[in-house]
Write a structure and sequence with these properties.
Helix content: 25-40%
CATH topology of the largest domain: Rossmann fold
Strand order of the largest sheet: 2-1-3-4
Radius of gyration: 16 Å
CATH superfamily of the largest domain: P-loop containing nucleotide triphosphate hydrolases
Shape: globular
Order of helices and strands: EEHEEHEHHHHEH
Number of helices: 7
Number of domains: 2
Length: 188
């Protein structure tokens, strides 16, 4: 079992956003959460990532409880999130945005360079635009950059929040193929 949630409750103030959520994910699976706006999909991903704290319940990743950990420790443990809306640093270059994704492993210079090469193989356009400011990229290119940044931490589990939001159908098709390619490289 890669990830297991049992009875997770998360609140915004006194408003219950998640009530007793339980799910499990095996290594190698690609899982999709479906639901209407406001159903709690983003809240669930933020809770797993440690951005929001659950009030009760248990979150276990690779056999260890993580619901009490800070987001940086959760990233170090092997979970990375690509947030809804991309949340890039628009005034920084593509390359600097990617390197920020590897911050938790900043001592591993060779590993970071290897990861950069893999990202540029997955998304060749990012290599071409590596010196370009992130804010000047198209929507599809920004999504590629956001995903690449999330993969730079070398996660075991990659959480993608609304990866196809606002993208053209052809771009979405290519994006989902890339998600499968990332999964083949040992990331669930």
């Amino acid at each position: 079992m890669l990830l297991k949630l049992e009875g997770v409750h998360t609140y915004y103030g006194n408003f219950p956003a998640l009530r007793g959520v339980s799910l499990s994910i095996e290594k190698g699976e690609i899982v999709t959460l479906l639901g209407s706006n406001g159903a709690g999909k983003t809240t669930l991903l933020k809770t797993i990532s440690g951005i929001l704290r659950s009030r009760s319940g248990m979150i276990v990743f690779e056999g260890k409880r993580i619901e009490h950990l800070h987001p940086n420790a959760i990233v170090r443990s092997g979970i990375s999130q690509c947030p809804e809306g991309r949340k890039l640093f628009p005034e920084m270059s593509v390359l600097k945005n990617l390197r920020l994704g590897a911050y938790v492993r900043r001592q591993d210079k060779k590993g970071i360079e290897k990861s950069l090469a893999e990202i540029f193989q997955l998304f060749p356009i990012l290599s071409e635009r590596s010196k370009q400011l992130a804010g000047t990229l198209s929507g599809g290119e920004q999504q590629m950059l956001a995903m690449g940044r999330a993969v730079m931490s070398n996660p075991t589990l990659l959480l993608l929040d609304e990866p196809s939001l606002g993208l053209a159908p052809l771009v979405v098709s290519a994006l989902f193929q890339t998600i499968q390619d990332i999964n083949q490289r040992q990331t669930t």
